[in-house]
Amino acid sequence: MDSRYRKHLTLQDRYTIEEGLNHGYTLTRIAEEVGKDKTTISKEIRKHRIGNSQRIGKTNDCMNRFQCPIQHLCKDCLMDRDCCKCRKEDCRKICPEYRSDSCRYTHRAPYVCNGCSMVYDCHRPHFYYRATSAYSSYVEQLKSSREGIMLSKEQLFELDCLLTPLLKQGQSIAHIYAMHKQEIPCSMKTLYNYIDMGIFTARNIDLPKKVKYKKRKNRRKEPETDYAYREGRTYKDFLEYISANGETPVVELDTVHGSKATGRVMMTMLFRSSTLMLIFLLPDCTQKSVRAVFDRLTDSLGLEEFRKCFPVILTDNGSEFKDPVSLEKTEGGQTRTRIFYCDPLASWQKARLEKNHEFIRRVIPKGQPLDPYTQEDMTLLANHINSTARSSLNNRTPYELAEFINSEKLLKTQSLERIDPDRVILTPQLFKHR
Q1: Which of 90, 125, 143 is the last residue of a domain?
Q2: Which of 152, 286, 301, 422 lies at a C-alpha separation of 20 to 30 Å from 396?
């Protein structure tokens, strides 16, 4: 359905908002993905954010902590010093003038701490946007807004005078509503509700069939999330496929984000058999950019070689990977790989790649923008990571194993090469002299 005719945000829309905030997207970009106005997204976040407005941490976060003159908050205190400098008692817990020094980003866009790189070191009040919590609050408000009695006392009295005598004569609600529809200012369902609430003189016992039927049980409703892209591609399907095809190489796929100020990201691919990692620089975190990398690899390797190198790919449920058909097939419709997805919130199912990302963060810390870097820099970074010996590989490097296991053409086309052990650099100094 066109989003213009869909007034309310769905649970899937809220998941998109949460994921965008976690990735540091602007409200304008999130609004474009959801198909709503930027103001709607801003109101949704501020209305349904959760958190503590008074978060007590070890560090004094009072707004007046540097110039507070208050003394003797403790009744038995004999010390002639400001309470903010006293270590005997936390003045924030007993001071009536305590006001927390909140973060400016909670007063303006994005209004929450999702995606903030300093969230674990920050002692200020934290606010988060959670899709499931926001949707539950929305549904509760929707229900409560439709509860109660919408008719005046005069309307209820007139309706009672019309309804009760006819019910006493044995007539059904359906018959009364059909014959007096113009005189009844509510729906037939509302009439049943009002009778059940005891508003009219007539009761449920006066309805011919009401007392004969048991109350219907509420069916459990599943979240309105579109999981069509996962059909036949879940982690369970992946395990079954690997069990039936044990010798099939597996490649793990993910993205690594830079700062929220830029949309550039790194797409990483790791071969389980050798722990060899490829790094690609993407202009943005979209399905189109991911598809472009797959197409370039197919062109450089050839379709048959691509099938040998990437027969099975395991990735997470990021929005950039939610079009599996475009990744599995070429523009001509030829199958080139199989895509499978980890379970939600189960990154451990591709733990090797997640662990390998630690090497990237040693060189490019989290939150640092990726604008200064090029694809050549990403290849250089991959070469140094692949030339690092691992105890899990019997003190060998991923590149050494790749020379025996992976395709020689893959190593050549991606400019992968061995770095001398004593020249391996895994600090920001790697790019200082490039």
Answers
A1: 143
A2: 301
